[in-house]
Amino acid sequence: EVWNMMNNKYSEFLPSVQNREDLVAEVEGLSMDIDLLKTAIENEVQQDLNVAVTEFTELKKQLERDSVVLSVLKKLQEFDAAMKEFSAALLEEKYMPAAQRLEKARSSLRNVESHRGFELKIPKALRKELTVQEQNTIYQLGKEWQKLIVWKLPHSKGSSSLEAVVLSELHLHTVPPQGEDTAVPPIAAVLQALAVLGELHYKLKDFGQLLMEYILKPLISYPSLEPVTEEQPDVFILRFRSQELALDEFSPVKVFDKIKLIFEVLHKYLLNVPLEQPGKGGKEGRVTLAELLGELIWEELSNCLIHSCLVHSVPSSSSQLEQYKEVIESTKEFEKALKEMQFLKQDKTALLTYACNVNFHFANKKCQDLIKAARKLMTSEIHNTVKITPDSSAALPELPSPGSGDHPKTHGPSSLLDNGTVNLGSESSLSQSTLSLPTCRISSSVQQLVELAYSTMEEAKTSTKFCCLQLCNCVGDIFHVFCEVVPKYHRENLQKLPQLAAIHYNNCMYIAHHLLTLGHQFRYLTSSVLSDCGGTFVDAVPDFKRLGMECFLAQMQVQKRGVLDRLWSARNFSNMDDDENYHAANKSIKQVLHQLKGLGTVWQDVLPVHVYCKAMGTLLNTALAEIVTRITALEDISAEGADRLYSLCKIVVDEGPQVFTPLLEEDKNKKYQEEVPVYVQRWMTFKELMIILRANLQEIVDRWADGKGPLAEQFSAAEVKSLIRALFQNTERRAAALAKIK
């Protein structure tokens, strides 16, 4: 059974093996065929394919070259046709078609030159020919332009003078012909041809410059100049005439009318020509000659109108602002007319903007004028003075009672500087001298400066808020400028001349006095701006007081040094029994008194009395203190020396009070000469020293009175002992006296 089973399996397996062997043999045959086919493709078909691709590439390149050549030939044909048409049109003076054909030829040639790889000599020759024809056309158009627009100008170089302008004329041969005769080409054709060739801009630029220089600017600069127009059958003439004016004033209304007339005639005979802009089509490409000219000259013209006309019409006072509405309306009408003539674009409003900002310009002009006037006053001579008395110096003007809501009446500068009793609305009132300056002299320029400040503040009351703020700030600026300018400009005189230093001191105190109340006087005004100015003015008060004090104290130091320098030559008042020493001391004292008397004279009727007396008292006190110090320092004083020292001191006591002459009236000065001890601190000390120089020991002891007498009030025990030792010989009596001085 096993054997049978194996035979069955074998008999089944054998056919499948045979089938597989057959398939293997068939596959091997197919593989050989594939290899043969591959070899044939690589050796024969691939070679043929490479040849075909190469041929196709060459044919493609040849086709491209032929296409380019065909295109170039076509453009050359177009160029030739355009040039022929151009020549024909130019002969017939049809400038517009000629210019268009020339542009067509230029476009064709540009297309030919854009192709790379062709070394053609033809384009270079054609370019040369095109340039020649273009320049020839431009030249002919230029001649036509010169026929249409003829300037007859003076030969002199001073073209801007009135005499030269009167001789200038503009002739426009653009008057439309009445018949059918059109010998002169229409202006539109010439202008359009120039536009196509790109030359119109240069022609218009030259025309605009001549128009500005010989017509527009002179009309703005010379109010007496009037334009005169004349129309003849074939030409329009514009010339000028000069009229004598009573006042050489710049009236913007008249200037606008003249300029508008010029543009109206130019618009009628020249500028109202529609042009096609090259490269643009439709409505966007159409512009008028007026628009092109406006773009070229409007900026310069508007600046000239502003700076040579409108700026001079800005009011110099707020009362004239209302009248300026006429100028604003005229400016509006002027711009509107130019826009209707298309000379000006709708968005251009430079003139109207400037005119409408009249408040701004008025404030700036007013402030500039104020600063200029103030600076002139500050740099004028200080010694030209006016006298200020309590009856004439400034006090508060009439003010409403607090909370009443009333406003004070408008006062002029003079009334604001008047004095009067100030009613505070209570039972009592302040006296006449309250808030008044003492009698003194100030520079007339400073009085005018303060009046200028008051008048400016008065004007600010009725101004707009902006003007009010500017004017208020300007007043503050004036006083700040004073602090900067006056000390520097007058520095040398203020240092050398004591009278000017005193006047400058008074000036500063006078201004400080007004600043203290200036803001308060205007605090009830309706403008909230002015209500805040008071603080600004008050803040400057310490600066002015310091400015005056520094100058005057510097002069006081100079005078003190003079006093001490003269006393230095007194040889310390030692050895007065020596005639030479005595004469030197006597001379130095007289020089000091002479200095003080001279100073008292130049300060007389200038400084306020109390300041005068205090200043002179300080200087005399400096001399006395120096003399006392020198004498008390002496170690030995002879009897004769004591007598001579006494005589020297007596000169000072006798003549010292005479330096106090604050007033011109001599009899009124006696009061202040008698009050010398009040102003001279060491006066009583000096008189006690004189008593000691002539007293005996007992008298000195009696005046000491155990440290309670008049001598003890002026000298210390050490100083008295030193004087006793210097004046008296060493005896028991001197020792006893010294023992009592303690």
UniProtKB/TrEMBL annotation:
Residue numbers spanned by region Disordered: 392-418
UniProt main location, coarse: nucleus
Residues annotated as domain Centromere/kinetochore protein zw10 middle: 141-378
Protein name: Centromere/kinetochore protein zw10 homolog
Domain Centromere/kinetochore protein zw10 C-terminal: 436-563
Family of the protein in this entry: Belongs to the ZW10 family.
PANTHER family: CENTROMERE/KINETOCHORE PROTEIN ZW10, CENTROMERE_KINETOCHORE PROTEIN ZW10 HOMOLOG
Superkingdom, taxonomy of origin: Eukaryota
Gene3D superfamilies recorded: 1.10.357.150
Subcellular location: Chromosome, Centromere, Kinetochore; Cytoplasm, Cytoskeleton, Spindle; Endoplasmic reticulum membrane
Sequence ranges assigned to domain Centromere/kinetochore protein zw10 N-terminal in this UniProt record: 1-83
Gene Ontology biological process terms, A to Z: cell division; endoplasmic reticulum to Golgi vesicle-mediated transport; mitotic spindle assembly checkpoint signaling; protein transport
Gene name in the database record: Zw10
ZW10 C-terminal helical domain span: 587-741
Organism: Oreocharis arfaki
Upper classification of the organism: Eukaryota, Metazoa, Chordata, Craniata, Vertebrata
Keyword list, A-Z: Acetylation, Cell cycle, Cell division, Centromere, Chromosome, Coiled coil, Cytoplasm, Cytoskeleton, Endoplasmic reticulum, ER-Golgi transport, Kinetochore, Membrane, Mitosis, Phosphoprotein, Protein transport, Transport
